[in-house]
Amino acid sequence: MDKLLLIDDEADVQYSFRRIFASPDLQLFTASSGEEGVRAIERVKPDLVISDIRMAGINGLETLRRIRQLDPRLPVILMTAYGTTQTAIEAMKLGAYDYLLKPFDVPKLKELVAKALQAARESRQATALQPMLEAEDYELGVIGRSEAMQGIFKLIGQVAATDATALITGESGTGKELVARAIYQYGRRAERPFLAINCAAIAENLLESELFGHEKGAFTGAAAQRIGKFEQCHGGTLFLDEIGDMSPATQTKILRVLQSGTFERVGGNQTVTVDVRVIAATNKPLEEAVARKEFREDLFYRLNVVRIQMPPLRQRREDIRLLVDYFLRRFAGPGGKPRSIGPGTLEALEGYAWPGNVRELENTLRRAMVVAKGPAILPSDLPLEMVSGAPAAALVPSMPAVRGPEAGSAESTPPPATAQDVPGLAAALFRFARTDSKLKVLPAVERVLIIEALKETSGNQVQAAKLLGITRATLRKRIEKFGIRQELAVN
Ligand SMILES: Nc1ncnc2c1ncn2[C@@H]1O[C@H](COP(=O)(O)OP(=O)(O)OP(=O)(O)O)[C@@H](O)[C@H]1O
Ligand SMILES: [Mg+2]
């Protein structure tokens, strides 16, 4: 049975709570002041606290602050008749679960209570991830135990020991720059400079001067001589990022410096000799650019001496758990307590396609930490499109309330949904989707439904399409578009 503690000095409010929450699944306790409420926490051990803000004695914010010291996990909902944005912000900053305006709408209140209790249950079940990484894994900062990543580590080791040019390719966010830095750190040139330059971020006419420098008066605006990256990096390592976006003239100059270590500054005729190790990266298929004659073939081969192809995250799902552990620890900082993971959260993360790879995972966790209302990250803290693999309860946290006020809000097994529930379910999805302004709710829901249909039919696409009311061809296209796991769609 769930225990709800109400802190409010108005007898009327206490009375209406008793009526609203008269349910065998819920036990209501009341306190008439903040002080009394804080004292009651130890004795009652509530699952949820709802407190008024304006009260005689300590106010609701101070009550919340004291409750937080006693129990950082306990969800607290604050309510007040005088809503100002400032109190709302202050309340959330202090870690309130939510904020409610009086007079409250009863169905809304019940829904919020059901949601908070559900979150409290999940939070209690949440576990800290077992530490899986060794100290040196953290230092290197390139995380992965999958076979694909083991291969990458070996290559890093081999290349680091040489001065060979390396070309790192792979989708965006797969860790190309990270690997370039690892090669540098482990190499002979670790004591010498490492400079990075993003070739795509610099206007074409400026890139050459950025790389090779220019002489005074080389072009309009060249008021003084300038030393380029190759010269600054003498003896060290230069990381040429997004190498696919370079003009033919610059490509020619790069090829020459790779072959002979020489170049001239823009507008100059003095030959400069440098000793620079080059590591290049691109997320574009360079072979295709070569075929289209946009990228010099000889330069391609010169860069491609050692090729490191970064695997996309969806091809090494076993690393996701490790990366989650790594990022949560890193975000917590040294000595800080990392966030724990609620039931279903890891499964949802492991089931997602990650088109933005590790960067997307990192950003998702960062955002989830902001949205999470307790010390655990729950599936409801993730973008909707990721929650498809998680239990339906996490997706629609307010199912009972959707069915109308007469159904008890703490009902354990809601009756099965009928067609009449569809508008209510849709409304619940929209409420949920509002936590992410960038979320496109329709494709996200489509993906969830497709996965559910495939699970329901054990991956039989013909049956799943029928269930969804679409053709098999459409289903196929969607499976591809959403990157739904192959093992779900068996035929
Ligand atoms: N294996 C990994 N372990 C830990 N962190 C990683 C790993 N791979 C990537 N990251 C992190 O993900 C983010 C993106 O990595 P990085 O910038 O190296 O990707 P990239 O391949 O260069 O992407 P882009 O093509 O978009 O430039 C960084 O914050 C990086 O620290
Ligand atoms: Mg990069």
Describe this structure in words.
The chain folds into 3 domains: 2-104, Rossmann fold; 147-310, P-loop containing nucleotide triphosphate hydrolases (Rossmann fold, 3-Layer(aba) Sandwich); 319-410 and 417-481, Helicase, Ruva Protein, domain 3. The model is unreliable at 389-415 (pLDDT under 50). The chain has helices at 11-20, 34-44, 60-70, 85-93, 106-125, 135-140, 147-160, 176-186, 204-212, 229-232, 248-260, 286-291, 297-303, 320-332, 345-351, 357-371, 392-395, 399-402, 422-433, 441-456, 461-468, 472-481, and strands spanning 2-7, 26-31, 48-52, 76-80, 98-101, 166-169, 194-198, 237-241, 262-264, 271-273, 277-282, 306-309, 340-341, 376-377. The chain is 45% helix and 12% strand. It is of the alpha/beta class and 491 residues long. The chain has a 5-stranded parallel sheet with strand order 2-1-3-4-5, sandwiched between helices. Strands 7-8-11-6-12 form a 5-stranded parallel sheet. A two-stranded antiparallel ribbon has the order 9-10. The two termini are 45 Å apart. Helix 2 packs parallel to helix 3 (60-70).
- Helix coverage percent of residues? 40-55%
Amino- and carboxy-terminal Cα gap: 45 Å
CATH class of the largest domain: Alpha Beta
Main β-sheet, in a few words? 5 strands, parallel
Q: Which stretches are poorly predicted, pLDDT < 50 over at least 5 residues?
A: 389-415
CATH topology of the largest domain: Rossmann fold
Number of strands: 14
Structural class: alpha/beta
Name the strands of the widest sheet in spatial order.
2-1-3-4-5
Number of helices: 22
Number of separate domains: 3
What gyration radius follows from the Cα positions, in whole Å?
29 Å
What's the CATH H-level superfamily name of the largest domain? P-loop containing nucleotide triphosphate hydrolases
Q: Which hetero ligands occur in this complex? A: adenosine-5'-triphosphate, magnesium ion
Strand proportion: 5-15%
Shape: elongated
Rounded average pLDDT: 84
CATH architecture of the largest domain: 3-Layer(aba) Sandwich
